[in-house]
UniProtKB/TrEMBL annotation:
Pfam families: Fer4_21. Residues 1-27, 31-51 form the 4Fe-4S ferredoxin-type domain. GO terms for molecular function: oxidoreductase activity. Coiled coil: none annotated. InterPro entries: 4Fe4S_Fe-S-bd, 4Fe4S_Fe_S_CS. It comes from Methanolobus profundi. The lineage of its organism: Archaea, Methanobacteriati, Methanobacteriota, Stenosarchaea group, Methanomicrobia. This is 4Fe-4S dicluster domain-containing protein.
């Protein structure tokens, strides 16, 4: 998964990540725990997460 420039740092994606693989420090970033499941994509309100 990749976070694009649309990210506003709302953190909504973190609530739905089953692997605690998203950190938000200003904007979201994926950690090495990300398994590319794609669940976060559906919950991003600004479509900032891409496969």
């Amino acid at each position: 998964m990749r976070v694009n420039e649309n990210c506003v740092g709302c953190g909504q994606c973190t609530a739905f990540c089953n692997f605690d693989a998203i950190e938000v420090r200003g904007k979201a970033t994926m950690t090495s725990a990300c398994v590319d499941c794609g669940t976060c994509i559906a919950y991003c309100p600004v479509k900032a997460i891409e496969a």
